[in-house]
């Protein structure tokens, strides 16, 4: 089983590509590092993988769940601690 599967992942802001065609496969139980220089798009990819933002194009599945179709199902199954706090408008106390 693939824990993470991303295909042709793109994210652009005002016509500027932050992520340009990434493919990523992470097998169940595998540990991986995500390295690159400042501005390479690492944080943007992590935000897409954790459903905080949607890709401009491409497909992502986490635990074999499509992030575009079932983001809340994924959020119930993963845990993320970001370096800097971010406000998520879809979260509530209910």
From TrEMBL:
Keywords carried by this UniProt record: ATP-binding, Nucleotide-binding, Transport
Residues in ABC transporter domain copies: 20-93
Gene3D superfamilies registered for this protein in UniProt: P-loop containing nucleotide triphosphate hydrolases (3.40.50.300)
GO molecular function: ATP binding; ATP hydrolysis activity
Span of the signal peptide: none
Transmembrane regions: none
Protein name, entry field: ABC transporter domain-containing protein
């Amino acid at each position: 089983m693939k824990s993470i599967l991303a295909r042709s992942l793109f994210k652009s802001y005002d016509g500027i590509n932050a992520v340009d065609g990434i493919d990523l496969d992470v097998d169940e139980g595998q540990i991986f590092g995500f390295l690159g220089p400042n501005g390479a798009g690492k944080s943007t990819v992590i935000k897409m993988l954790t459903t905080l933002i949607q890709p401009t194009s491409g497909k992502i599945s986490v635990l074999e769940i499509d992030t575009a179709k079932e983001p809340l199902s994924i959020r119930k199954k993963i845990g993320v601690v970001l370096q800097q706090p971010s406000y998520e408008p879809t979260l509530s106390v209910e």
